[in-house]
Design brief:
Elements lengths: L3 H8 L2 H21 L8 H47 L3 E2 L1 H6 L5 H14 L3 E4 L5 E4 L13
Antiparallel strand pairs: 1-3, 2-3
Length: about 150
C-alpha cells in the first residue's frame, strides 16, 4: 500500500505545474501591463503564483529524469548480479533456465541479459552437441569443468 507522501507526489504532474505557472504568469503579467505598469500589486502574484510553479515543474522534471535513469541502471545491475551469483554457485557454467530457476528473474530477461553480456565479452556462449545453449563465466569456472559436451 502506498503511503500518503508517495500518492501526493504522484498526483503532482510537472507538466501541470508548468502549464499552471505559464497561465498565471500570463494572466498577472497582462493585468500588470493593462494597468499601465504602475501598480506593483500584480508583480507579487506573478512571481509566487506564476513563476514559482514553472520553476517547481522544471525541477520535478529533472528529478524524475534522474530517478528514472538511476532506477533503470540499478535494476540492470541487480539482474547482472543475480546472474553472476548463480554462475558462481554453478562453477561458471549456466543456462538461462538454470539462472531463472535459481533467481527471481523472468526467463526472457535472463536470456536477454546473458546475450548482452556475451556480446560485451563478459561471458562466453557455447552450444552443446545436444543443442543446449550454455554460458561460461571463466572467472568462476574450474578449467577441468570447461570441457564442452
Amino acid at each position: 500500500m502506498m503511503n500518503h507522501r508517495k500518492q501526493r507526489e504522484q498526483s503532482k504532474s510537472p507538466f501541470a505545474s508548468i502549464i499552471a505557472g505559464i497561465l498565471f504568469s500570463c494572466a498577472f503579467g497582462a493585468a500588470w501591463f493593462f494597468t499601465g505598469m504602475r501598480s506593483w500589486f500584480f508583480i507579487f502574484p506573478l512571481v509566487f503564483v506564476g513563476i514559482m510553479p514553472i520553476i517547481n515543474g522544471i525541477t520535478m522534471l529533472s528529478r524524475k529524469k534522474k530517478y528514472d535513469e538511476l532506477s533503470h541502471s540499478n535494476g540492470k545491475l541487480n539482474i547482472e548480479k543475480q546472474i553472476l551469483l548463480v554462475a558462481k554457485q554453478n562453477k561458471g557454467k549456466v543456462t538461462p533456465a538454470l539462472v531463472a530457476l535459481n533467481s527471481d528473474l523472468p526467463l526472457e530477461q535472463v536470456e536477454k541479459t546473458l546475450s548482452d553480456m556475451a556480446k560485451k565479452g563478459y561471458v562466453e556462449m557455447h552450444v552443446t552437441r545436444g543443442g543446449r545453449i550454455e554460458y561460461i563465466f571463466h572467472d568462476f569456472a574450474d578449467q577441468d569443468d570447461l570441457l564442452i559436451e
